Amino acid sequence: MRKDEEQNPPENRNINTGGGNYNERIEGDYIQGNVFQNIFHLGGQTTTPVGNPARPKNERILLAAVKEEVTARLRQSLHNAVLINLGKESQPQQVKRPWDAEIKIGSKPAEPLSDTTTILQVFDSEEIAGKLLILGAPGAGKTTTQLELAQALVQRAEEQPDYPVPVLFNLSSWKDDRQSLTDWLVAELKSKYGVSTKLGQDWVDNHQLLPLLDGLDELEPQRQELCVYAINQFLASETRPLYLVVCSRSEEYTNYATQLQLNGAIYLQPLTKNQIYDYLTSIKYIELWSIISNDINLLELVKTPLLVSITVLVYQEISIEEWQHLNSTADRIQYLLDAYVGRMLIRNINSRTYFQTKPPNAKRTRIWLVWLAQQMEGEAKTEFLIEEIQPSLFKSKFPKIIYNLIVWGVIQMLISGLISGLIFGLISGLIFGFHGLEIENKTIPNQGIWQSAKNIVKLSALLFFPSTILIFLIQKILLNNSFNEALIFSLMSGLLLGLLVGIPRSGTPVIKHFILRLVLYCNGYIPWNYARFLDYCTERMLLQRVGGRYRFIHKLLQDHFAQMEFKRN
User: Fold this and answer.
1) Rounded to whole angstroms, how far apart are CA atoms 267 and 255?
2) Which among 106, 200, 269, 366 could bridge 195 via Cys, Cβ 3.0 to 4.6 Å?
3) pLDDT given at position 503
4) Of residues 294, 289, 296, 334, the one with CA closest to residue 315
5) Which of 248, 252, 276, 260 is nearest to 145 (CA)?
């Protein structure tokens, strides 16, 4: 029996997840956040754990979360965007890669891979033995390749109960140079999937996870090699995983003095002229091929799956002559990305987010996405959660001052209004503490804040009923007041007591978040209904959504928006 099974039997342990409609939670010693989540049932759809029943239930729920995340991200990829626009369906049974790859083992020269060799076969090869580095240029298909590997590994973990659970991590969230990779993995499990520190540590210590690390090149340049060093320390430690996959841009990685201590690397090669021809002719874009094939600069530009996919999507919207006469590769890429954004914003879709109201116009959508991309870029993030918005996003002092004044005033007003006659309730509320709560199951946008709001009601109700009854009995029996007087006084007192405890305990983060959103909205940074807007951008294939988390459909698009000037008017 595994260590985590001994401490808490599988039938009594649940985890919540961040990748789908999963609302099961760790109970008992593993509970995180609000103590009252043990008392009240958290509503919502619960998951059906996947995999062999011989595997502990917690692991099967985590496996279900990862499976949902991988499926959602592959479904929302730009490759699928092309197929959707062309009225075609993906054919996952086809194993032939659209690009070439080379494999390098140790000091041996790189060798080309057969185009029918799958990434799982590379991972399983005797030389690699499950410790693999995936390298390539921006847009070469690195993340897609890693997701396809994750999909295959999830299927294997479903079938084999002792196989480690593959989990996706993004290294851009490694913020502290002094933090070991083991501690970071445990923290990420808690942040992303709601796994308690204790259980996460057990999983890492017992080699029950298969980390798939992306985004090494998305760290600040001066910290990337420090992260390589931290990964190597992890690989040499007692908690070293049985298998590990790292994904990075090749240009950045080759400049490091320190190399990862993995068994081998796969290099994703640029598309060849023949591969581009085969792809474009197969989707009946012969005219586009004739234009590209006669311009060496354009041909060089579309040698990545990302850019050839974007070119197909925007071909009808761009001026080929203008595109051809741009001076640099960077300018041509920016032109393509501009055209892609424009195309996505005007294409006809059956929007489910704004079906009753008019959606924001293209200009307003761009402005809000520019602000979002700049905030994510400034914090070196590739994923965004609405409830993680912080006052630090204000770039000038005036909005910060306004925010702090409003927060202070509102909280003081609420407490002052409730304090009359109920000093004990205020003290109780303060004992509980003025600190934020965060529901860790990010299955819907802004779920943490909504859960805190629910906690106000639950906690207030918990105190309201018994205190009302007690005060009524005191009023009626000891003070001999009339029935109506006792009833009215007890109801009002019970309500005030409940609110005095509930608002400081769970209401403070809700108030702060509401005011922060209000100030951002009034300054033109975000729309009022932010979740609806982000879902609308997901429909427009500008963002991807997994659970309550959002990301741009590709890091190049995030960078493109971040480089634009933010103009509110």
Assistant:
1) 15
2) 200
3) 54
4) 289
5) 248
Which residue is associated with the tokens 């910060």? Answer: 400
Element of type H or E holding 181: helix 181-193
Q: Which residues contact 348 (CB under 8 A, 6 or more apart)?
A: none
Q: Could you report the per-residue pLDDT of 12-23, keeping only the tens digit for each?
A: 333 433 333 333
CA-only gyration radius of the chain, Å: 27
Among the listed residues 473, 448, 323, 539, the one whose alpha carbon sits nearest the alpha carbon of residue 37:
448
Residue 393 has a pLDDT of 64
Bridging pattern class, strands 165-170 and 209-214 = parallel
Question: Taking Cα atoms as reference points, which of 426, 561, 443, 557 lies closest to residue 504?
Answer: 426
Q: Which residues contact 297 (CB under 8 A, 6 or more apart)?
A: 324, 329, 332
CB proximity list for 85: less than 8 A, separation 6 or greater: 312, 313, 347
Tell me how far apart the alpha carbons of residues 453 and 507 are, in angstroms, rounded to a whole number. Answer: 7
- Phi and psi for 198 in degrees, rounded to 5? -65, -50
How do residues 276-308 score in pLDDT, each as one tens digit? 898 888 888 899 999 999 888 889 888 888 898
Q: What token pair was written down for 527?
A: 């729309």
- Residue among 425, 428, 447, 424 nearest 437 (CA): 447
Please state, rounded to an integer, the average pLDDT across all residues of the chain.
Answer: 76
- pLDDT in the model for residue 486: 63
CA distances from 559 to 218, 380, 526 (A): 11, 11, 19
> For 74-104, how does the pLDDT look when each residue is reduced to its tens digit (9 = 90+)?
888 877 665 555 444 443 333 345 566 777 7
Q: Quick: pLDDT tens for 114-141.
A: 878 889 999 999 989 999 999 999 888 8
SS3 402: helix
* Measured distance CA(376)–CA(365) in Å, rounded: 17
DSSP three-state, residue 481: coil
Residues 130-155 have a mean pLDDT of 92
- Tell me if 30 sits within 8 A of 198, measured CB to CB: yes
Question: What are the Cα distances from residue 2, in Å, to 38, 199, 285, 336, 337?
Answer: 25, 12, 56, 53, 50
Residue 515 exposure: Cα atoms within 13 Å on the Cβ side: 20
The tokens for 413 are 């007003």
Contact 561, 371 (CB under 8 A): no
Which residues, 6 or more positions from 551, have their beta carbon under 8 angstroms from its beta carbon? Answer: 382, 383, 384, 543, 544, 558
Cβ neighbours of 378 (radius 10 Å): 12
Tokens found for residue 120: 């799982």
- Report the distance separating Cα 200 and Cα 194, nearest Å: 10
Per-residue pLDDT band at 519 (split at 50, 70, 90): confident
Q: Is 135 helix (H, G, I), strand (E, B) or coil?
A: strand
- Residues 543-561: pLDDT tens digits? 999 888 899 999 999 999 9
